[in-house]
Amino acid sequence: MEKRPLGRTDIMISPIIMGTWQAGKSMWTGIDDRESIRAIEAAYDAGITTFDTAEVYGNGHSERILGKALKNVRHKVVIASKVFSNHLAYDQVIQACNRSLKNLGTDYLDLYQIHWPPGSFGHRKVPLEETMQALLDLLEEGKIRAIGVSNFDAVQLEEALELGPVVSLQPPYSLFWRMIEQETVPVCLRHELTILAYSPLAQGLLTGKFDAGHVFEKGDHRRANRLFQPELFNLALKALEELKPIAEAHGATLAQLALAWVIAQPRTCAIAGARSAEQATQNAAAARIRLSSEDLEAMDRISRTVTGKLDTNPILWQW
């Protein structure tokens, strides 16, 4: 699989990134640790060299599973983790990073990200300067190789860039969720940031595996996903029918087509989770798809039948 630079650094990442929220188990159902490890190993075997996790994914469980799965190839992979919005004071950031390093069984993180902006989820709004100073000190110590942010809007991103060498933004981004394109993407392009798109499959919606009237099990956070609410969900199902011929023309699944669209966008990589080794291998194969300008134009038109009905709320879930 081809590699791309992370921002302006010499860190090279795979365009398809393995996301491991599901490996943390919390807010998911039916997750098995052994299957999570097999999925991570299969992703690596298929050419994925970049893996994303966070301290909040199962209170460190995702990090521990990821560390166990990658322990024999640590020097060959890029690992990104995130500090949550309740740990943004200086000492808390340092402590959180050390916990993540221990969980992962490594002495450095390739990318360490602020998971949500200060003040998110009712947590104390720590001055961004304080959080960034902790990240700068971790960078100086060699405990992290690069700094990123997640879920920041354009204004928050510009502020972070003034305080330190931010190299990436991790936002929700997919064919059915394109909030960042108007204001945030231009900031990323201007500063040569890498966009690490999470939920590039719209949390499974773009796979085409859900039928009308689908109901998620209690405890599955997708019950609160705005795209799965009736009006948008029904529009999405119609759009998927229009996308199928494009996928078939490439000998691809709908999921692979959706991932190919994301990584075809400027400076953008796709973070795709997988519950099984088969899913991980299928995700990796999306990197081989080359979409034509005609494909991209058609996919843009089709996707806007869904995104055109969204309001300006940038949060993917109704929490």
Task: Give descriptors for this structure.
13% strand; single chain; 39% helix; TIM Barrel; eight-stranded parallel β-barrel
3D structure, described in words:
It contains ten helices and ten strands. By secondary structure, the chain is of the alpha/beta class. It has a single domain (4-307), classed as NADP-dependent oxidoreductase domain (TIM Barrel). It has an eight-stranded parallel β-barrel, surrounded by seven helices. It has a two-stranded antiparallel ribbon with strand order 1-2. Helix 1 (33-45) packs across helix 2 and helix 1 packs parallel to helix 9. The longest helix is centred in the last third of the chain and has 20 residues, at 230-249.
Enumerate the strands of the largest sheet in spatial order, edge to edge or round the barrel. Answer: 3-4-5-6-7-8-9-10
Which percent band covers the strand fraction?
5-15%
Give the CA-CA distance, first to last residue: 37 Å
SSE ordering: EEEHEHEHEHEHEHEHHEHH
Spatial shape: globular
Short recap of the structure:
With 319 residues, this protein is α/β, with parallel strands linked by helices. The protein has one domain (4-307): Alpha-Beta Barrel (TIM Barrel). The chain is 39% helix and 13% strand.
Write the SSE topology.
Layout: E1 4-5, E2 12-13, E3 16-19, H1 33-45, E4 50-52, H2 61-70, E5 78-83, H3 90-104, E6 111-114, H4 128-141, E7 147-150, H5 154-163, E8 166-170, H6 184-190, E9 194-198, H7 230-249, H8 254-263, E10 268-273, H9 277-285, H10 293-307
Helix pairs in contact: 1-2, 1-9, 2-3, 3-4, 7-10
